[in-house]
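It is worth pausing here to work through a concrete case rather than discussing structure prediction in the abstract. The textbook approach is simple: state the sequence, then state the predicted structure, then interpret. We follow exactly that order.
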Amino acid sequence: MRHFITFAFFLFISVACKAQDYNETVQSFQQYYKVDDLAGMKQIAHQLVQYYPDDYAGYAFAAYTSLLENKLSEAEINLQSVQILNPADLGSYSIAAYAAFLNGNPQEAEKLMNYAFQLKTNTAVLSEILEDISQLERFLQKDLAALKTVAQEADKNTSGAISAMKIYADCTAAWWQKKECAITETLNYLNSQKFKNEEIIAQIQFNRASAYYDTQQWDQAQKAYQQFLELPIVKKGHLGFAAAHSLLRLSYFDADGELIIAKANQGLNYIEGLLNTSFIQCELLMRKMHAYAELNDLENKFASAQHLLSKAEKINFTFAALKAKNTIGAYYIESRKPGAAGLAYKYLFEAYNESLKFNEPDLQSEIATNYALALWKRGEKSRAKQMVEKEYEYSLKNAKYLDAQNLANNLAFMFYMNEDYGQAAELFEKAIAITENHLKKLPQQEQLLVMNNHAGAYSGLVMSYRNLNETEKLFKAQDLNRSRILKNNLNKNIPQVSLSQVQSLLANDEVMLYYSNGEPGEMIVSVITSTSAEISYNFPIDDWLTIKRKFINIVNKQPNSINNYVTKLNEEIVDGKLVSYSDKKQGFTVKDYDQFISISREFLQSHDEKLADLQTEFLKHWYQFLIQPVANQIQGKKTLLISAEGKLGFMPFEAFINSSNHYLIEDFNVKYIPSATIWASLQNRNYPATRKSLLAMGGATYAKPKTSGSENRSMPDVYQIKNQLSQKISENKVNLKEELSLLGFGGANYLAGTLKEVQNLKMIVPDATVLINDQMKESDIKRLNKNDELAKYKWLHIATHGFALDNFPQLSGVMMMQPPGGDGEEDMFLLAHEIAQLNLKADMAVLSACETALGKVYKGEGVNGLNSALLTAGANNTLLSLWPVNDAGTMILMTLVYNNLNQGQMSVEDAVNTAKREMLSGKYGAQFASPVIWAPFVINGK
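Step two, the predicted structure:
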């Protein structure tokens, strides 16, 4: 067996294993082999399989010892594992050839023996293989002269192998030295063989990618792994282990959690059924766990952790097992399930104490963070604080700033729960300082992800300052926690606005309402006028719990009673058991709050008269929650400038109804701002009064829509396409037609209302430029932009199909004219990143289409979509829609808006709000007085 693993340049040995121990174990096998000690060889094979389940050597040795015992079926099973783990090893193929011959298949033995000799690196291989066969003869008491002849013939057939393998070995060494090396001769040799082995050729490509990766040649590694996965033999399902390994490593190039999950699932599918448990399987599960954490998907994160723990414990993968226990314990800390507190302590107690023996300080620190929370919940507050303080100092000392951020944040919440708001605020500020310093070094997409994870510190600081009644500091924390990417896109040098600066910019009849979420169902708002600033607060927990029982539980099919017992407000049924909360706030969660927003939006969009009373009830609740607490401060004002946080930005405040059955818009103008800093910066963006009036586009025709939808694709395919789109968008590619088509984007039904809409606008604004049908191609709007024509208009109006994807904001956009022969280099979709690059000098940009005001909500940023793109392009205000719009109602609203702008010489704010009030009055019929019609279009910006 001396020829064994001579070709194994890459061994899949986990970080938890030591290479020195591995090599010593392999050498021990060789010693037993020399003296025909079968028991010793079997013992070593078993040890290798047990401790190195991702390496092929143990399985190969086990296969060989099974042959020595004439256990051919057992040998075949182990050889299958060898083939999975490393299909490019001389020794493995020679053992497989022995097995085939002993099974009475000389043709298969001949092929496999030739595969083995194609990989020979020296002339001694033949004698070593003949030595194996002689040993088999001794143990089996059989004449295997014919098998020796097969080996001798294979040696003759592969005379060029040594030279070819030397080139490969030299190239491998070169790749590890970050040098380029062509292996054309090796590949040509392998391709020319009578017994051609596609798996060896593919494995060489994989090994090359691995060399690039291990030497941190990231671009080359990424490209090489992708090329390997595209090989036909890999796509057929062969080389599953290498494919899984490739996908694991490729996942580290992704920042998008969905893409990471897609690659992890692909990798797990490749090795499903191949091996019982492996390190690579555990590492893929850890990637899934990490990705679900990034996506804040706690249930799937928990499920992945449970799966990981069951696998890791089987193979003594301590690092992975501790990661899993930490995640499971953290889940139970936040869980409301019966017995959750005890389970949290159990898992975290085990994880923490095991981590002390494992000698991994970073992992120990990570676990200690959650263990401290479990201790806190058990009442061991002093010990919990001491533990977090210790780990915080360790993280700072070792420059692990993101860990320090998390620890400072957790410690701050401990002080907050202990009502020590001053100390809590100080620690939240430390956590935020670390985040702010880290963000400066990151590209935009990564900034969004980091802020999404770190937003809790900003919320905690807002909550602390609310309790300390620190108005100015609270406002600063609020403003810092939204629209930073938009600010950078507008101008990286824009300073954060101060409270006094905001007051100086507000008119006497304006009031800014700056909303922040505290605990679920808790509202904190800075109420700012030109002469005053104060904090308002509302946490009607009883109302929220009543709503939960009345609506949310019904939607979720969750009972409000058990065994004829009706639950109280501080109780609920969880997993069929009655749970009682010492603090009833525990019974209302972020998920409940977000779900109520979703239900509210569904009712708002409904034309069903049977739901009218429910719609009114919901709108009254929102008024009581968000407006009534500030009623005194806003009394006598004309305009409300609203900055809402999170999904609250998807709600039309103007449609909220007070106890006198008046809509908010009946008493106030309502407009929205991304942040106070953005709003303040837009006050300095003034355009010439000499601009033309209106550029309106509508009446586009589209390709015939697909009747069967897009081609059925697996989720990994979809995420891969999204990845390709993200790459092209980052490279500023203009034509994404291929990827858009693969995702189902194509034609659409003609919207006759859009033609009538813009033709009607021409009558309202006689000097308007109206482009219809084939005049509103994507190339047309880009040509107008290139010629600076777009910058000459006060108002830009595009009426067409629109789309805003909350899971992929880069794909938000509008459809342009789709000529039968296409539009040259354009894909005929004007997407958010293309809109952001336009040069506008518009007082108002209108996308008269469905759901153009939506997008992905990032904590610490807000809604990322078309509004941000248009403001970046230069529009001072946007008028976009929150839900699908009614053609006739939209035409009436837009007619009124532009009549107010052009004839009435109103500001954008007055024009839009006056138009809505006129529709609400019933002047145009009861059907158009409903908020379903006038409420979706919201004004945002200056």
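Step three, interpretation. The two ends are 78 Å apart (CA to CA). DSSP finds 41 helices and 20 strands in the chain.
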